[in-house]
Amino acid sequence: MTGLTSDHILQRMMALHPKIIDLTLDRVWRLLERLDHPERHLPPVIHIAGTNGKGSTQAMIRAGLEAEGKRVHAYTSPHLARFHERIRLAGELISEAALTELLDEVHAANGSDPITYFEITTCAAILAFARTPADYTLLEVGLGGRLDATNVIDAPRATVITPVALDHQQYLGETLEEIAGEKAGILKRGAPCIVGPQEDAGLEVIERRAERVGAPLFARGQHWHAFEERGRLVYQDETGLLDLPLPNLPGAYQIDNAGAALAVLRQLGCGEAAFEAAVTRADWPARMQRLSHGPLVEAAPNAQLWLDGGHNPAAGRALAAHLATLPPRPTYLVCGMLNTKDIVGYLRPFAGHVAHLTAVPVPDEAATLSPEDTATAARAAGLPASTASSALDAVEAIATEAPQARILLCGSLYLAGAILRENG
């Protein structure tokens, strides 16, 4: 396939299965066998599931390990600007040449057999990780856990379940208990599981699964605690207390993500340098990220522009709570969402915290909700709303009306990715 780019091969992979999501492990096991089982040769794996906070928690764990000089692989999804973001080899994003060669090899091994895009690219990542020396592998679940393509590791070093909430019900179940059961499918015998804050119903499911498979559980509120005190992050478990700076990732909810990351680092025997780096050096774009340059910033030079990819009701509650802690400033939302989401549930927490919402389409996404439908949902959630044809048009209009506004672009990781691409 000389001359093809990774994008060309990824496009071919999209055509190997009629569905984007089809949860089963059969196709993954088949391909891994053809690749001589790379999943058996990975550096020690930390496997991370949950509805919200997976990426931030992974970023903090990675920052902590790298501060101790560890070489860390990391797998995450979806990507924001380029596919390469999904595969980090020993600390560096995979190069275009390496990615193209890898995808070509895995595509050839699979042939024309049905397999979803996520499944085949996950197998590619696992193959790359197995071939590159490192000290740890951080695997983020794509969807659910039990039947996710990443759930092929027999003996992870540790597992993590971040907060579980209602999302992707069409795939994971209609109740919190059903969804928690899918997330808890990553638990393995003997592998400690660090559990972030959970609703009681979800925690009970996770506890039953842990007891059934023989996985030691370390749950927030029982085995570890993390909270803010006098402008510092205090973490405490049976080993002792840590007094650390607040997380550099903004939002009160990052306290709990940091707690889970610190609990993992404790399990791995890390020291003070790792703990401090986890909360001060983590980088995770599109999570209350302040935009500093690009066409949107130029269109509203006196405004504050923030970007966040949260898209479910729990994310909406966390974002709204964070906005309430910021210095007073007129706040406007520019929102684009997919038609598979609980739009009213996501937007309702913002009522009373924002002056206005401008609904926009998610560029190049077939499943985008129309701006008109998003605006209708916003009004149902108690927000004044209008529409615009793009994020840039929306920001320009807001800047004309309220030059000093705080503008939050939100509602979808796909919208966030498009904005990051367009703004460098």
TrEMBL record:
Main function: Functions in two distinct reactions of the de novo folate biosynthetic pathway. Catalyzes the addition of a glutamate residue to dihydropteroate (7,8-dihydropteroate or H2Pte) to form dihydrofolate (7,8-dihydrofolate monoglutamate or H2Pte-Glu). Also catalyzes successive additions of L-glutamate to tetrahydrofolate or 10-formyltetrahydrofolate or 5,10-methylenetetrahydrofolate, leading to folylpolyglutamate derivatives.
Family: Belongs to the folylpolyglutamate synthase family.
Molecular function GO labels: ATP binding; dihydrofolate synthase activity; metal ion binding; tetrahydrofolylpolyglutamate synthase activity
Residue ranges of every copy of the Mur ligase C-terminal domain listed in the record: 301-412
Protein's recorded name: Dihydrofolate synthase/folylpolyglutamate synthase
Top-level taxon in the UniProt lineage: Bacteria
A biological process from GO: folic acid biosynthetic process
Cofactor field: Mg(2+)
Recorded catalytic activity of this chain's protein: 10-formyltetrahydrofolyl-(gamma-L-Glu)(n) + L-glutamate + ATP = 10-formyltetrahydrofolyl-(gamma-L-Glu)(n+1) + ADP + phosphate + H(+); (6R)-5,10-methylenetetrahydrofolyl-(gamma-L-Glu)(n) + L-glutamate + ATP = (6R)-5,10-methylenetetrahydrofolyl-(gamma-L-Glu)(n+1) + ADP + phosphate + H(+); 7,8-dihydropteroate + L-glutamate + ATP = 7,8-dihydrofolate + ADP + phosphate + H(+); (6S)-5,6,7,8-tetrahydrofolyl-(gamma-L-Glu)(n) + L-glutamate + ATP = (6S)-5,6,7,8-tetrahydrofolyl-(gamma-L-Glu)(n+1) + ADP + phosphate + H(+)
E.C. designation(s): 6.3.2.12, 6.3.2.17
Pfam families recorded: Mur_ligase_C, Mur_ligase_M
Pathway recorded for this protein: Cofactor biosynthesis; tetrahydrofolylpolyglutamate biosynthesis; Cofactor biosynthesis; tetrahydrofolate biosynthesis; 7,8-dihydrofolate from 2-amino-4-hydroxy-6-hydroxymethyl-7,8-dihydropteridine diphosphate and 4-aminobenzoate: step 2/2
Domain Mur ligase central: 48-264
GO cellular component, one term: cytoplasm
Keywords tagged on the record: ATP-binding, Folate biosynthesis, Ligase, Magnesium, Metal-binding, Nucleotide-binding
